[in-house]
Specification:
This protein has helices at about 80-90, 90-100, 110-115, 120-125, and strands spanning about 10, 15, 40, 45-50, 55, 65-70, 105-110. It has about 140 residues and is α/β, with parallel strands linked by helices. It has a three-stranded parallel beta sheet, covered by helices on one side. The chain has a two-stranded antiparallel ribbon with strand order 1-2. It has a two-stranded antiparallel ribbon with strand order 4-5. The chain is globular, with a radius of gyration of 15 Å.
Length: about 140
């Protein structure tokens, strides 16, 4: 269970408010944990050579990756078609890639385009559910 009063996220000294500005998802088997590191923008967190797309830095060792929710979008029919977009939007696929490149944490940013289809209250309702975490 997330205890918002015991959780925190600060960016440049500004504390983000749970439920209004940020959500923290509980991790199964891990009651607590602190993560610190430099924030590094990693695009959508996608490496898709077949679509000539890799917006994740090669070396994220000790860094916290900041990624955009979802997959890249384009008007081109051959760029991230529906099936590829679904695969590369998957949080587990992104998490594994980021971890493999050394990231110690992850911040996901919703874009206005995403919020048109999945409004903030949708994510707030999902927050209480535990998330599974790969430990190795």
């Amino acid at each position: 269970t997330v205890k918002p009063e015991e959780c925190g996220l600060e960016v440049d000294g500004a504390r983000l408010r749970y439920g209004d500005d940020a959500l923290y998802f509980p991790r199964a088997g891990s009651p607590s944990g602190d993560v610190a590191g430099d924030l590094v923008l990693a695009g959508h967190g996608v490496s898709a050579p077949e679509d000539r797309s890799d917006d994740v830095p090669k070396d994220l060792k000790g860094k916290i990756a900041v990624i955009l929710y979802g997959a890249p979008r384009s008007d081109r029919a051959d760029f991230f078609p529906t099936a590829a977009s679904a695969v590369y939007s998957d949080g587990w696929v992104k998490s594994r890639l980021l971890k493999a490149r050394g990231a110690v944490g992850l911040v996901i940013v919703l874009t206005p385009d995403v919020e048109q289809h999945l409004p903030w209250p949708f994510f707030v309702r999902q927050a209480p559910f535990e998330q599974m975490v790969a430990l190795s």
